[in-house]
Write a structure and sequence with these properties.
The chain has a four-stranded mixed β-sheet with strand order 1-2-4-3. Helix content is about 45%, strand content about 25%. Strand 1, helix 1 and strand 2 form a beta-alpha-beta unit. It is an alpha/beta fold and about 120 residues long.
């Protein structure tokens, strides 16, 4: 299981913890051992731009899911990409008086449900 994580260095995220959360969520699904998931943490402008470009929606989303669900020649099932708007996750954490990682876990779960519903 490969979890690829990309983030802006300004975002105080523990990549190991995020990877562990993602693996824990994925373990609830009946998936092959050889899978790959990409998680990208972006800012508001990038999240809005992606939402406009790919969904024709004019707002900043908290999470976007871009399913791939293709098995490559190497036998790895590529689930797709999750894009999480870190500033919105942080804002929601403050509003709900929760830890940012708790909100990120909720967003990961929601995004993975969207990615995996087509499997």
């Amino acid at each position: 299981m490969r979890i690829l994580i990309k983030k802006d260095p300004r975002y105080p995220l523990d990549v190991k913890e995020i990877r562990s959360i993602a693996k824990s969520i994925l373990s609830n699904y009946d998936l092959p051992d050889e899978i790959e998931l990409s998680i990208n943490f972006v800012g508001k402008r990038k999240a809005k731009s992606l939402n406009e470009d790919y969904r024709n929606k004019d707002y900043i989303p908290k999470v976007l899911a871009f399913p791939m669900n293709e098995k490559g020649p190497d036998g790895v099932l590529r689930l797709g990409d999750l894009v999480i708007c870190f500033p919105l996750a942080r804002k929601e954490a403050r509003q709900r008086q929760r830890m940012v990682n708790e909100i990120i876990e909720e967003l990961l779960e929601h995004g993975m449900n969207n990615l995996l519903r087509e499997l």
